[in-house]
Each structure stands twice: as structure tokens, then as C-alpha cells.
Amino acid sequence: MGFQSVLRWGVDLTLVAMLLAAVRRETGLVFAYERYDFTKLIRGYLTWGEYCFQRFINHVKGDSGRFRKQLDGVDKFLGEP
């Protein structure tokens, strides 16, 4: 396994952890990690996802310039009212 493969796995796992963090923040549902033997490892992984997600949110809300507030009546996604 080369460096690029390890890097790719790291990025993919980080994105999944960030997705789980977003699910927790949006719905209040958390991954039931206490069912598994590696609770410390999984908790650390989920904490890493929370950290990365918060950094991403701070970047988006900050000076990125690529994001704006949603406009009522214009930005309707998935049939929102």
C-alpha cells in the first residue's frame, strides 16, 4: 500500500466521520458505538469528525466568499416550501 493509497483512505474516512458529525448535529442521532469492542477508537474517530466538521463550518462562515445565505423563493432544493 503506497502513500497515495493511505492518503486516500485517510481522506475518505475523514469525510465519513464528518458526515456522521453532520447527522448528529442535524438530527440528534448518534452512531451507537458502545455496541462494539473498540469504543475508545470509535469515539476518537467520531471526535475527529466533529473537529473537522467544525473547522469546515468555521471556514464556510468566515472569509471563503464562495458561500452566501439562502435566498427565499430562489434557492429551493428538494421541493422545500
Protein model, in words:
- The chain is an all-alpha fold.
- It has a domain of 51 residues.
- It contains two helices and no strands.
- The longest helix is centred in the first third of the chain and has 25 residues.
- The radius of gyration is 16 Å and the shape is extended.
- The termini are far apart.
Please sum up the structure shown.
With 81 residues, the chain is mostly helical. The protein contains two helices and no strands. InterPro entries: Mitofissin.
In terms of DSSP E residues, the strand content is: under 5%
Low-confidence regions: none
Largest sheet: none
- What is the approximate shape? extended
User: Number of helical runs?
Assistant: 2
Question: What is the percent of helical residues?
Answer: 55-70%
Number of strands: 0
Average pLDDT works out at 90
Distance between the termini: 49 Å
Order of helices and strands: HH
InterPro entries: Mitofissin
Pfam families: Mitofissin
GO cellular component, one term: cytoplasm
Signal peptide: 1-25
